Amino acid sequence: xxxxxxxIARYFAPLAVGERGAYALLNDxxxxxxxxxxxxxxxxxxxxxxxHFLPDDPPDLIARKxxxxxxxxxxxxxxxxxxxxxxxxxxxxxxxxxxxxFATGFGRDQDIYDVVLLGGDTLRTPGPLTLTLTALGEVxxxxxxxxxxxxxxxxxxxxxxxxxxxxxxxxxLGQAAEKLxxxxxxxxxxxxxxxxxxxxxxxxxxxxxxxATACLDVSDGLMGDLGHIAxxxxxxxxVEVTRLPLAPEVRRLVEAVPERLxxxxxxxxxxxxxxxxxxxxxxxxxxxxxxxxVAISRIGRMTQGDSVRLLDVQGRDVAVAQAGWTHF
Amino acid sequence: xxxxxxxIARYFAPLAVGERGAYALLNDxxxxxxxxxxxxxxxxxxxxxxxHFLPDDPPDLIARKxxxxxxxxxxxxxxxxxxxxxxxxxxxxxxxxxxxxFATGFGRDQDIYDVVLLGGDTLRTPGPLTLTLTALGEVxxxxxxxxxxxxxxxxxxxxxxxxxxxxxxxxxLGQAAEKLxxxxxxxxxxxxxxxxxxxxxxxxxxxxxxxATACLDVSDGLMGDLGHIAxxxxxxxxVEVTRLPLAPEVRRLVEAVPERLxxxxxxxxxxxxxxxxxxxxxxxxxxxxxxxxVAISRIGRMTQGDSVRLLDVQGRDVAVAQAGWTHF
Lengths: 328, 328
Hints:
- 2 copies of one chain form a homodimer.
- Chain A has helices spanning 4-12, 59-76, 96-113, 164-172, 176-179, 185-196, 222-233, 248-256, 258-266, 282-292; strands at 30-32, 38-48, 80-90, 116-124, 130-140, 155-159, 214-218, 236-240, 272-277, 296-303, 308-311.
- Chain A is α+β, with helices and mostly antiparallel strands.
- In chain A, the strands form 2 sheets. In chain A, strands 7-9-6-10-8-11 form a 6-stranded mixed sheet, sandwiched between helices. A 4-stranded mixed sheet of chain A has the order 2-5-3-4.
- In chain A, helix 3 links the parallel strand 3 (80-90) and strand 4 (116-124).
- The radius of gyration of chain A is 20 Å and the shape is globular.
- The two termini of chain A are 32 Å apart.
- Chains A and B meet through strand 1, strand 2, helix 2, strand 3 and strand 4 of A and strand 1, strand 2, helix 2, strand 3 and strand 4 of B.
- Chains A, B: Residues 151-310 form the PurM-like C-terminal domain.
- Chains A, B: Pathway: Cofactor biosynthesis; thiamine diphosphate biosynthesis; thiamine diphosphate from thiamine phosphate: step 1/1.
């Protein structure tokens, strides 16, 4: 393995092209100009081998997932992403081929999301490969969305489809036969891909101010994260199982195997946006979905009280086993 | 150990008081308003137990060192620090007492440097305790200092005293009797303290634009870091041993034991500022030193060519064994 400077120059400096303030990663720190009347938005997430990903996961997908989980946090605050810093603690199991693929993954997502690498740190660890990414974005001043600002009677919306990453983890762990009966190989592949590489609606976040009253990204399970909106707002919430956005095979599965419904509503790694909006905005939300190309489902409503409930087709409570899922 | 949310609420949310955009660490991301006509400056550094610090180092000093090495990078670009994000990957060896002391360390330095915790991530690792900190600061637009912009004939300045952390590491490792003969217990304690807790001149950085033409912080050894200024500027550099700022006992040591001079000029962890300035600014630099209370020593000059030389009292070259010191 090359020395740190050579490694940075070869694999990472090309990712910093396009932002003058990254100084080709040669300076101590990076500069970012935030436009007038905008605020900086920043977030940080870490991933550890064996905890958040598996040692034989493809390095390009590890890189892209790390970036995307952070961009998802920016989107939840309505911020447009600008750039990121990376801490890369190598365990010694990563060779040049691994590094090249890892950097290639960042390059692909940089093109998709219009972000650049601004700086970081490369080091050795006697422990597992450990990654930390800090993402930086911008939002017009005063427009950032928060999670504790929903009002009673407002609708609850969820982007994309629910629970596919949680089910995909069963595939990844070789538990498909036991946990996901009757799904085809193609369906299982699709679920595993959803676990390996989330597809957060990064471009939708900046379009939500004016419509959404509260927002977060679902990373630790729908019901737990909805609890954050409800608790922060001093309210309760109701979600209807029949309104959850589920692929047909997932819907059949959760109807046949109740434990899988628990996985779908409490599992992690969805990285979809969960937001509230006043009922009079229903048409506007529908138009936003069409115009953005992001599916947005109305799944329930905010209520008085403090209970966060999941209701079946008859309006009866479905017990939710876990309050939320956590890597911690 | 408590769950992640409780742990954050108890130990870290108090560190986020004072910055509304940190949302008491309850949101997905944090907001920071950069003043008009200013740029954001950001940097990231990681520390791993057993590599960058020792398992029995006091947790408050680990926290403060992690923050200070990042603030040093901001200072080198003339930025004023504003806040930071923290990734805390706990190994399981850290109990509540450890966490409380760790958070207390951040609190102390937050008061000293006028920064707040903006956000972060808390997680578990099967490996060693791993810390990553991202620091955010601000600089008037166009005033950020860079490292590759020195000119031939300019003076080279160094703040503070050199090599004390590198020598202090010998104390920390129990090698004082062998490596640091004839120093008193009090002198050894002072060196060890310099290793454990650097004292970067954070307040000096924002005062350097208009005087300094190139700047960086010495973290990987004076001669190696001076090489970055020289190479980046397409120049050479000369440093005079007799002009190096050394404590009297360190000066006696390096004159008696030539290997210790190598440690002083090539060792890491100084976290002092190294900058260049035109000769006609000598009076202004001297006034800046007096006004800021930071010692600033003129140690050499930038030259034509590409050699970075250390000269003894007779003007002869002193061979420098290592190009620089690295944790990598």
